[in-house]
Amino acid sequence: RVVNLSLGSTTADAHISAAVQRAIAAGIVVVASAGNGGNVGDPANYPAAEPGVIAVASVGQTLARSTFSTRATYVALAAPGEAILTTYRTGLYARGDGTSFAAAHVSAAAATLLAEGATAAIMRTLLMTTAVDLGPVGTDIQTGAGLLDLAAARAAIPPPPATTTTTTLPI
């Protein structure tokens, strides 16, 4: 129910765009890395720039936007994306940087919220409204709504609707 897209291009691809829109229409949450173009003029990054996609920027240990992280109006959230321990092609581990790492955090958070009963629409609202604002007040092009706060989002999941049971007893 969650798709993580850690890829990007400065131009939209019709096939990928169509697939993303079909997934969103089917209630699948689509999360994508916002792009690593912060040092080269912040070009748009697709599919992150597609409507309905949760685009994720990167922050480092100081919670400042990573210099490589693309700034854009489509950025929804931020998550850790610097010095992330990951597997490496030598079979060992290495530390890496990138918005792909940040997107993975948000994808895992989305899956957690969905597993705990949130709908896709409510899950997105929970992530956005519980994020810790990092930049100028409100949503901004650097970190979107702010830093992912899964604990706050989990605490804000609305309870399931109350059910009532009516029992008819014979007289």
Summarize the structure.
By secondary structure, the chain is α/β, with parallel strands linked by helices.
Descriptive notes:
The protein is an alpha/beta fold and 171 residues long. Helices cover 27% and strands 17% of the residues. The chain has four helices and six strands, in the order βαβββββααα. The protein has a four-stranded parallel beta sheet. α2 (99-115) crosses α3 (120-130). The radius of gyration is 18 Å and the shape is elongated. The termini are far apart. The model has no long low-confidence stretch (mean pLDDT 94).
- State the helicity in percent bands: 25-40%
CA-based shape: elongated
Structural class: alpha/beta
| Average pLDDT taken over every residue | 94
Residue share in β-strands: 15-25%
Roughly how many Å is the radius of gyration?
A: 18 Å
Low-confidence stretches: none
Q: Compute the number of helices.
A: 4
H-E order: EHEEEEEHHH
Main sheet: strand order:
1-2-3-4
The count of DSSP E runs of length 2 or more, i.e. the number of strands, is 6
